[in-house]
Amino acid sequence: MDVFTLRGKVTGRFTDEEFFWFCAENPELRIERNSNLEITIMAPVFALGGYQSGEVTRQLGNWAHSEGSGIAFDSSTGFTLPDRSVRSPDASWVSLKRWNLLSEADKNRFAPICPDFVIEVRSKSDHLDDLKEKMNSWIRNGAKLAWLVDPQDEITYVFRPGKPIEKITGMDRKIPGEGPVQGFILDLSQLKI
User: Fold this and answer.
1) Which residue has the higher pLDDT, 34 or 94?
2) Which CATH superfamily is domain 46-191 in?
3) Residue 137: which region, alpha, beta or left (left: phi > 0; alpha: psi -120 to 50)?
4) Separation between Cα atoms, residue 90 and residue 75, nearest integer Å
5) What is the 3-state secondary structure (H, E, C) of the chain?
6) Residue 7's pLDDT band (boundaries 50, 70, 90)?
7) How many CA atoms lie within 13 A of 24 on its CB side?
8) How far is CA 133 from the centre of its chain?
9) Of 126 and 117, which is predicted with more confidence?
């Protein structure tokens, strides 16, 4: 079992506060909520997938630190999106301008903000179609750019609002950022070990 979904009257009635406490009381679980208010519990990421996700987070974090106009987040960060889903991308970036509009209370919860930029890395336990739908959800909820890196098939999918999905083939590539993350470069070759 790699994903277990809880659905029904009970989960659909969870307030945002109750969902927050459900997650807080089960910190050993990887939990998300979709726009239908179904709760998804996921298996831990396999070791290689964890390395690849961590490497993406490191590269984005290093760039964000040196560039200074926004902050990067890791895979354990949950965001409450406009459609009430609570999602956790492998790596994400939010502009300081938008981040600073949040209250301190909101910053210490699943922040009610959609990241400007998200990256998901497909691991062996992930289903590609589910990840593509998740990427479309990020875009529908306000992300300006989203990358789905699939090291297994050596394809990176680029999602942008109102545009067709772009495919970039190969893991020996450097993917240049654009829009909110102009100047960021993801070196895919660093994901191979």
Assistant:
1) 94
2) tt1808, chain A (3.90.1570.10)
3) alpha
4) 4
5) CCEEEECCHHHHCCCHHHHHHHHHCCCCCEEEECCCCCEEEECCCCHHHHHHHHHHHHHHHHHHHHHCCEEEECCCCCEECCCCCEECCCEEEEEHHHHCCCCHHHHCCCECCCCCEEEEECCCCCCHHHHHHHHHHHHHCCCCEEEEEECCCCEEEEECCCCCCEEEECCCCEEECCHHHCCCEEEHHHHCC
6) confident
7) 9
8) 12
9) 117
Res 29 pLDDT > 90: no
> What's the confidence (pLDDT) of residue 90?
96
